[in-house]
Amino acid sequence: MNRCGNLLFALFAYATPLSSVTAAQPIPFAVTDTDFRSHNAAKAKLGMLLMFDKILSGNQNISCGTCHHALTDTGDGLSLPVGEAFPLIDGLPVKELGIGVGLGKNRNAGDIEERVPRNAPPVFNLGAHEFGVLFHDGRVRANPDFPSGCETPAGANLPAGLESVLACQAMFPVTAKTEMAGGPSENPIGAAAANGGLHSVWLQLAQRLQKIPEYVKLFKKTFKDIKNAEDITFVHAANAIAAFEGTAWRADNSPFDQYLRGDINAMSANALEGMELFYGGDSNGQACADCHSGKFQTDHQFHAIAMPQIGPGRHSNSGNNVDGREDFGREQVTADPGDTLKFRTPTLRNVALTAPYGHAGAYNSLRAVVEHHLDPVKSLKAYDQEQAVLPPREDLDALDFITMNDPQRVKFIADHNELLPFTYTDEQVDRIMDFLHALTDPNSLDLRDNQPFTVPSGLPVTD
After folding, report:
1. Distance between CA atoms of 22 and 282, rounded to whole angstroms?
2. Which terminus of the chain has fewer CB atoms gathered within 10 Å of its CB, N or C?
3. Domains defined for the chain, CATH in brackets
């Protein structure tokens, strides 16, 4: 299509499904305020403090923001996160040993037991109503049949009062040993988490907040049902964190968004051509938008596309899991063999900012992960381990590629691939890359204001 054709196409695209013009999949309508949940400013402000306060971790040495930081594009820039695990000497964590210290690529692997099994996904636009399925395996999802409004690993035991599925999600990283809770011998919260005492974890964290006067003042100001310090629960904290994430990290002013709202000059000719390829498909009619559909370029479904497996993997119930190094994704939630190796389709908003990519962060290059989609099995078998971004430590390094170094395990992943090869040419891939870059919201390029200088606990915000 020539430039005139692109302009004519643009006149209709923001008001008309692309399928009615040329495409295999419809172009979405523009994002509007009604697509997002509303939150008051006081709750979001409190949520920002909680997001970056290490008081919510067992050993008080890591915050939610360590893995979802404003300075690392709401992820952490690593293939697999480095959580926290301080050894204890005389009952105290030894911080001077430099264990689990730093941000992003500068984070020290220290004495952690293992890497966090899955990539820390960016959290842009999770305040939108349509994001009802969270985590790579979808183990937290909105479900009105549950008292909390969410279907989660806690089942019917998740407390009531959670305001969104994003708040439900915020209840869980604090309970995970390798993420925020710490080990059972390190602190009471880690011990409770190891014994399955989720309510004890949440209670202990709430009690910490109840002892900090500034937090008590802020919680009372923000939540009408809090009259005294003892009324503060971790549900309140989760709601505040969700309010912050859902408002501060909204990203819907990209050139693509501007184009959909009627600015036909918002995207370059190359990006427009890439959009046509993304939605229109290849010579066989297979389109990127078959899975990356909707306003945020995700169908919120689960697919097996032969992504490389690195790191420890999230342990699976499958009999095929030889030594716990595998990660069978959605199957771990549903126990359905048909879900083996399936992972949630990620949103592509701000995708150019959010490397590494994949459930294990296997690809550090956007071009590399796009090319993986062109022929997943071929890409899997030719995987370049240098794509992984992993803070080095000799014993962990020896374990990171057990799966990828085993031809039988690689074959197992390849055999479950469900994505057929695309026929896009190199030049067409260039244009698709131009379109993907047009999904970057310029307001997301500088998020320095989305972190506090200090937090009420007095703990350091940065290591």
Report:
1. 12
2. N
3. 3-30+253-442 (1.10.760.10), 41-249 (1.10.760.10)
